[in-house]
């Protein structure tokens, strides 16, 4: 039986240690802003403003909490000893690169938090979650434990929700979560097609692969997640990302394609075999025809798509068609701005464009779509979640006050070893878990 369902967006709340360490090889924006002074307070407020605008439009908007950073347990596991302050001092003096990695606020990009399959697709008719192991980057590979705790605290009822551990943290099963996964459907509550996009086949060295930058998602990881979630062949398409696009800075599929409902909005360099991908989706999609909105390189060169993060936008249903929520940089790149003007006049499924200011996130290589994890929930499932994470006017005001009380307005690499920063972060997160009703999810709370 088809049930009414909504697609909820769970945005990552930017953490107090938001900084520009340039940790992500293959992410052009991340590298180009390395060592700049960041503004964690502004970053968090920009993220909250985006959430509030969408909540005010009637979308179900949830929040995922930031992680504890600097992450002292990781430093201890790497041999740094003594009090927390001594651990920070040792790491700061002898291994500043490691300190920068364990201080990253990268959990803000919750498109990488997990892969989520709605109950309409899964064999046991529960919503399934698998935290991404993010094994391609050290600073992100330490996220999945706390991500899993957060998801279990929010989606706790086992009669509705199933949680899996992250895949083995090795390159053969590199998994980047929903940044390489999208779902197409006639309606959110109906069975859909889950599109898993991978960069390489790990166990086939002869298969096509990028030459300059690493492919972070493997076919084997995508197949494993589909198995764990109980997805049948008719609900799944596996598609290889174009290796040339990866070498051009498209480190995740959500930098070059985004889907919603029966619409796939993508660049002509998104897939290695574009025609086969579209044919596979059309064969499996029931109840609606696929609306393939293809952006040609002639209209938007790949470099412009990457620079503007045109495709790292949110595609949302409205009563009058679909809304494309784009970063402000899309209006600063001439080819992209022209394309967007023509897009809304084209008579296609995307009928409006709105600009969101997430500049602090963009400088680190994450646009509006990076900041959110999509979770399709039917009415019963929505009632079963921890309501303390859903954005209301009251929660928004409390979080604004919380950010302004706890976040610095400037943060440089040299300050990451400051014991006061760690104390500030822990005090803030302890208060936040109380505000959101999450219980003890951080190592320092356990």
Automatic annotation (TrEMBL):
Assigned EC number: 3.5.3.23
InterPro entries reported for this sequence: AstB_sf (IPR037031), SuccinylArg_d-Hdrlase_AstB (IPR007079)
GO molecular function: N-succinylarginine dihydrolase activity
Source organism superkingdom: Bacteria
GO terms classed as biological process: L-arginine catabolic process to L-glutamate; L-arginine catabolic process to succinate
Annotated positions binding substrate: 21-30, 112, 139-140, 216, 254, 364
UniProt entry keywords in alphabetical sequence: Arginine metabolism, Hydrolase
Keyword Hydrolase part of the UniProt annotation: yes
Annotated metabolic or biological route of this protein: Amino-acid degradation; L-arginine degradation via AST pathway; L-glutamate and succinate from L-arginine: step 2/5
Active site: 176, 252, 370 (nucleophile)
One Pfam family recorded for the sequence: AstB
Hydrolase recorded as keyword: yes
Assigned protein family: Belongs to the succinylarginine dihydrolase family.
Subunit and partners: Homodimer.
Cited function: Catalyzes the hydrolysis of N(2)-succinylarginine into N(2)-succinylornithine, ammonia and CO(2).
NCBIfam families referenced in this protein's UniProt entry, alphabetically: arg_catab_astB (TIGR03241), PRK13281.1 (NF009789)
Protein's name in the database: N-succinylarginine dihydrolase
């Amino acid at each position: 039986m088809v049930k009414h369902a909504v697609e909820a967006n769970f945005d990552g709340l930017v953490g107090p240690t938001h900084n520009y360490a340039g940790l992500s090889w293959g992410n052009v924006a991340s590298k180009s802003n390395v060592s700049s002074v960041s503004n964690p307070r502004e970053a968090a407020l920009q993220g909250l403003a985006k959430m509030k605008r969408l909540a005010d439009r009637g979308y179900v908007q949830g929040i995922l909490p930031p992680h504890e950073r600097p992450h002292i347990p990781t430093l201890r596991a790497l041999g740094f000893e003594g009090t927390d302050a001594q651990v920070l001092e040792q790491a700061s003096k002898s291994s500043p690169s490691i300190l920068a990695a364990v201080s990253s606020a990268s959990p803000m990009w919750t498109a990488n938090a997990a892969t989520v399959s709605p109950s309409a697709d899964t064999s046991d008719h529960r919503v399934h979650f698998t935290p991404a192991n993010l094994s391609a980057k050290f600073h992100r590979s330490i996220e999945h434990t706390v991500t899993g705790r957060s998801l279990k605290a929010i989606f706790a009822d086992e009669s509705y929700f199933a949680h899996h551990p992250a895949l083995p943290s090795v390159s053969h099963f590199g998994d980047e979560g929903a940044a390489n996964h999208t779902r197409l459907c006639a309606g959110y509550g109906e069975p859909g097609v889950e599109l898993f996009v991978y960069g390489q086949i790990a166990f086939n060295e002869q298969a096509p692969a990028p030459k300059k930058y690493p492919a972070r998602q493997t076919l084997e990881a995508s197949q494993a997640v589909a198995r764990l979630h109980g997805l049948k062949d008719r609900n799944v398409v596996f598609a290889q990302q174009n290796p040339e696009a990866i070498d051009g800075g498209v480190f995740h599929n959500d930098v070059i394609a985004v889907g919603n409902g029966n619409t796939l909005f993508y660049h002509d360099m998104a897939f290695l075999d574009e025609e086969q991908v579209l044919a596979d989706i059309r064969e499996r999609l029931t109840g609606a025809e696929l609306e393939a909105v293809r952006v040609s390189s002639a209209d938007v060169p790949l470099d412009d798509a990457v620079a503007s993060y045109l495709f790292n936008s949110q595609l949302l249903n409205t009563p009058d068609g679909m809304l494309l929520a784009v970063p402000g940089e899309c209006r600063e790149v001439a080819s992209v701005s022209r394309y967007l003007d023509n897009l809304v006049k084209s008579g296609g499924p995307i009928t409006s464009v709105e600009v969101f200011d997430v500049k602090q996130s963009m400088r680190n290589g994450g646009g509006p779509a990076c900041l959110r994890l999509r979770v399709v929930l039917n009415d019963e499932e929505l009632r079963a979640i921890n309501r303390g994470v859903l954005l209301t006017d009251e929660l928004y005001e409390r979080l604004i006050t919380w950010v302004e009380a706890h976040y610095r307005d400037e943060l440089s690499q040299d300050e990451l070893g400051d014991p006061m920063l760690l104390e500030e972060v822990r005090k803030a997160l302890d208060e936040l878990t109380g505000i959101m009703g999450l219980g003890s999810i951080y190592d320092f709370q356990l």
